[in-house]
Amino acid sequence: MRPKWCKTTVLASFPRGSACTARQLKHSANRIYLDARASVPARRAGILNEDRIELPDDAIGASAERRSTRDLRKPSRAGIQHERAVGLMSRQTDNTYPKPLVMPKRGPSAALRLLIVGILLMGAAFIYFLFRDQLGDGFALVLMGVLSMVGVFYLFGAATGLIQFSQRSDHQDLAHSFMDTQPEGTVISDPRGQIVYANQAYARMTGATDADGIRPLDQVLASEPAASDAIYRLTNAVRDGLSAQEEVRISGGLSRGANGSLAPVWYRIKARALEGGAEFKGPLVAWQVADISEERAEQERFFQELQEAINHLDHAPAGFFSANPAGRIIYLNATLAEWLGVDLTQFTPGSLTLNDIVAGSGMALIKAVKAEPGTSRNTVIDLDLIKRNGQSLAVRFYHRVQTARDGMPGTTRTIVLDRAEGDDSSVAQRSAEVRFTRFFNSAPMAIAAVDAEGHTLRTNARFLDIFSGVVDRDAIDRRVKLENVVHERDRETFNKALAAAFAGQASISPVDTVLPGNEERHIRFYMSPVTDLGGEAAEEAAVISAVETTEQKALENQMAQSQKMQAVGQLAGGIAHDFNNVLTAIIMSSDLLLTNHRASDPSFPDIMNIKQNANRAASLVRQLLAFSRRQTLRPEVLDLTDVLADLRMLLARLVGKDIELKIDHGRDLWPVKADLGQFEQVAVNLAVNARDAMPEGGQITLRTRNIPAADAAKLHYRDLPEADYVVFEVEDTGTGIPADVLEKIFEPFFTTKEVGKGTGLGLSMVYGIIKQTGGFIYCDSEVGKGTTFKIFLSRLIEEKRADDAPVAAKEKKVEKATDLSGSATVLLVEDEDAVRMGGVRALQSRGYTVHEAASGVEALEIMEELGGEVDIVVSDVVMPEMDGPTLLRELRKTHPDIKFIFVSGYAEDAFARNLPADAKFGFLPKPFSLKQLATTVKEMLEKQD
């Protein structure tokens, strides 16, 4: 037989990721050919599930039998047989099996056969009775022996099961009758494609009149290009053990116009595998074909009616839209789209939201409409819409909301009318109404009108927006009293102001309150009386306006806190400066005493104790200066990765063994500019603070990372500008900080520790150092979970200069002098007698010639007396008559090369800004020891300009 070819478009259901091999396609006497370019796009939708098979772009050719394990996705040129690049299939059959049965004829049953045998035996017995005399006794014995043998054989066969009396014939008759009465055509084929059963409906569909006219389905559809791919895919599905179905359209039907009609007929073809057993050497394939033309026609009529209804709705003289519970518009008719300037060809369901088309606070009016569970509610709303060109459109909503029985909001449907149009004879009145509605609903403040008893008559959109958590639209429709939106503690004041408005008073003080249930939101109410100029009693007795002042209150609190911190800082800085002078005198006097006393001297421990306590006091003063941002910083370019790596051992010892210390280094950190020593102090203070918050142990994590400007803008930290930052975080798993304490943690002398266990200056010093560095610090904490301090340091972008190398060479650090003696002439200028006397004795003990002055004016006089024979000047900054910077400027006029050292309790940059940019000088912060003074003078004298 010559191969028969068929092609059809198919969308079959398959599991994802399945792959067919040539072995799965192999038949004993069949060959499958698949074009290498076969690919049929799925153009229909709705009848199949989500999982779909896709025809591979390669094919198995005639060599599939020789290479049965070859994957379908490997190309075989031998199978490319069709010029239209679609899947082709050929079946070659032989006549091994009998002809197909349309209505199989049934043979006699076992009972009937036994009845016939019994009749024959009775006939034989009757004949023997008639002719027994002629036959003789020998014949009778032989006959009886044969019958006995037959009887024994039947008994033995029945006992052993070789002979069975089955009732299957009746069951088969019932199955055949059932299948033949089915309206769907059914045909069953064996693994080689031979038909083993076909019912009457299949015969009628295909135009067959007898068994010889029955053909396999693939041969029936061989001339239909639109069906070949469907058969191919269904065949593959069955081979994979799956069931599948397809719908195909065939001109003239399967009988090819046998009734004279070539009208297209729609068929639904189903295929599934049946267990064939040993008789058929493999599974059978059951094909079912149903005529669904009427069903398709009904669907087409439904779609046409639906399209007609949509067309009517689209071009209705009113706008219409539907939105889901999230506020996304899922349908928009053409009329409303034209009003808004929306291109419907670009509109997709959900691409627009109500916020995109509703102007001002109109959304508050829409959100306020709610329905009870299991019901719907209709409401009329006047508001403005926003056109695509930015213009507003005054409309009236006939808004319908529905709620499911479980309380979940459903889809809303809204009819929109243009309020600029209508049949109202009074155009001026309608225009005035539109203008008032626009003003009322678009006002930035909440407005409510009340009657003489304080009941709410009407409110605008902003009112519903602000007080949505206190009252809803239903309460307003029931004319709830306006005092319900005021906190209980302020209702008496509010009602007094409202009574004044009812009395017609013009000037009424505003009432400040907070929202009931949310005291973090602040509201201010303004009262205005309503005066009816016409003489008639007006329903409205007063108009109340309300504005939210939450942000204003926050700014006021922030300003008050900032002013308090500034005042404390100024006070702390002033105290620290004066205290530094006292400490300097104590420390230098202690050093002088220690030089004259040996360790074995009985007074040596007392002198050492004085010095140690003075140093401890100096540490507290430095913390005060750090908080007031008046300490001297030596900023340099830092890589925080290296800084934390160097600190790891120290921090591990500080936090102890009960706490796990983890350092998470960010990748490719940007450089920052900060004082190394001060930053280390910040890290130590935060680590110790975290340790104290975990008395039972825990984990401290030090983390660094880069944050680009775009990400910084999303953090919403107060006062944090949008810029590139390097963030240093210290996170602990401790007890956390309560909200009332969190606001005070950076204040000096504030501590939650027991007396004697904390000064309250640790975090305030951290705050001051970070602020003086130009950074920002924030604290996030949750009680019971832990605290995280985040420090933001600005990214340093260095500008390379041509003279970088020479400058770097000049700025090399001078090694500290080990020999502190000298013979130079020193002019010491200090207004504090104790500090001046200590400095003179300290320098003289090192071999220097020292002249002293109590002010800048006196220092100039001494310089004139000495004729400028002074090698170095050591001067305080703040002095009466003439301060240190002025003294430097005056001396440099006549002695431009004279060396100069400032000593001060203030930061260096506090006075350096008053000097020329090229001024060269040294700096020694107070308090200082005898050794520190001698070292600074020695290094300054040896420094090459």
TrEMBL record:
Q: Which domain of life is it from?
A: Bacteria
Residue ranges constituting the Histidine kinase domain according to the UniProt record: 574-797
Chain ranges of the PAS domain: 171-212, 432-505
- Residues modified as 4-aspartylphosphate are 876
- Pfam families linked: HATPase_c, HisKA, PAS_4, PAS_8, Response_reg
Q: Which InterPro entries match?
A: CheY-like_superfamily, HATPase_C_sf, HATPase_dom, His_kinase_dom, HisK_dim/P_dom, HisK_dim/P_sf, PAS, PAS-like_dom_sf
Domain Response regulatory stretches: 825-941
Q: Where do the TM regions start and end?
A: 110-131, 138-163
Q: Does the keyword Kinase apply?
A: yes
Q: Which UniProt keywords apply?
A: Kinase, Membrane, Phosphoprotein, Transferase, Transmembrane, Transmembrane helix
Q: Which GO terms describe its molecular function?
A: phosphorelay sensor kinase activity
Q: Keyword Lyase on this protein?
A: no
**Listed EC numbers:** 2.7.13.3
Q: Which reactions are catalysed by this chain? A: ATP + protein L-histidine = ADP + protein N-phospho-L-histidine
Q: What is this protein called?
A: histidine kinase
Q: Which organism is it from?
A: Brucella ovis (strain ATCC 25840 / 63/290 / NCTC 10512)
Please name the taxonomic classification of the source: Bacteria, Pseudomonadati, Pseudomonadota, Alphaproteobacteria, Hyphomicrobiales
